Amino acid sequence: MTWHASVLTLFPEMFPGPLGQSLAGKALRDGRWAIDSFDIRSFATDRHRTVDDTPFGGGAGMVMRPDVVDAAIAAALAAGPDRPAVYLTPRGRPLDQAMVRDFVAGPGLILLCGRYEGVDQRVIEARGLREVSIGDYVLSGGEPAAMVLLDACVRLLPGVMGAAASGEEESFSPKGRECLLEYPHYTRPAEWQGRAVPPVLLSGHHAEVARWRQAEAERITCERRPDLWARHIETAGRDRAPAA
Ligand code: SAM
């Protein structure tokens, strides 16, 4: 069955947007995934097509109404049941590659894109929405976050990436690199603007190359991401210093 994404948004014309290009776009045209968008405003019931209202308790901004959002979720579920419904929000669990793999293993996703101050809490609870954040910053709407999540998912769908191995070797992949950032890459020319490619990569010694890449991945992770490095040490039982 085709992996199916439904996006609930006030701006349905934003989709597929960038997801219609390049790798995700080709996969879409090849039928490896499908996307539809639901205009939340079309589920408003008053003649002004109101989707938001002022927050109880006062304060700035507007809140998306639970009844309107709920009707949009019901329509998406009717188009493809048994898919987890996700609300993109800075308050959510941070998106990571393990979560992406989990989403890819299922039949697809329903993605709710907030606007204004967000959606009424009751619809989050009533629908059991999974709250997911793409990072500790605030976007003006959930649409770019939905695109980020979908891009990360689509490239892992079977047959989407050219080389089957490329998803397994990269940052955050299983195969022992779960908590490591990727090592640096080089291609031709072997020397460019006085900068040479590390000689080991030209040596033809596969074991040495693998050792160098592991050491570089550890060095970069230790320098840039102490949080990941601490997890790597914990899971791999390594010393504090990266391999030489
Ligand atoms: N009042 C909210 C807060 O302080 O957490 C921010 C609302 S934001 C202006 C509007 C919408 O953008 C949110 O409802 C959410 O759907 C989306 N959004 C903003 N930042 C996001 C992030 N880091 N991850 C996922 N979605 C985000």
From TrEMBL:
Subcellular location: Cytoplasm
Domain tRNA methyltransferase TRMD/TRM10-type: 6-230
Domain of life: Bacteria
An MF annotation (GO) of this entry: tRNA (guanine(37)-N1)-methyltransferase activity
Extent of the signal sequence: none
EC code(s) of this entry: 2.1.1.228
Keyword vocabulary terms for this entry: Cytoplasm, Methyltransferase, S-adenosyl-L-methionine, Transferase, tRNA processing
Substrates-to-products reaction catalysed: guanosine(37) in tRNA + S-adenosyl-L-methionine = N(1)-methylguanosine(37) in tRNA + S-adenosyl-L-homocysteine + H(+)
Binding residues for S-adenosyl-L-methionine: 114, 134-139
Chief location bin: cytoplasm
An annotated GO BP: tRNA N1-guanine methylation
Pfam families, per database record: tRNA_m1G_MT
Gene Ontology CC: one annotated term: cytosol
Alphabetical list of InterPro entries matching this protein: Alpha/beta_knot_MTases, tRNA_m1G_MeTrfase_C_sf, tRNA_m1G_MeTrfase_TrmD, tRNA_m1G_MTases_N, tRNA_MeTrfase_TRMD/TRM10
Binding partners and assembly: Homodimer.
Family of this protein: Belongs to the RNA methyltransferase TrmD family.
Role noted for this protein: Specifically methylates guanosine-37 in various tRNAs.
Protein name (record): tRNA (guanine-N(1)-)-methyltransferase
Originating organism: Roseicella aerolata
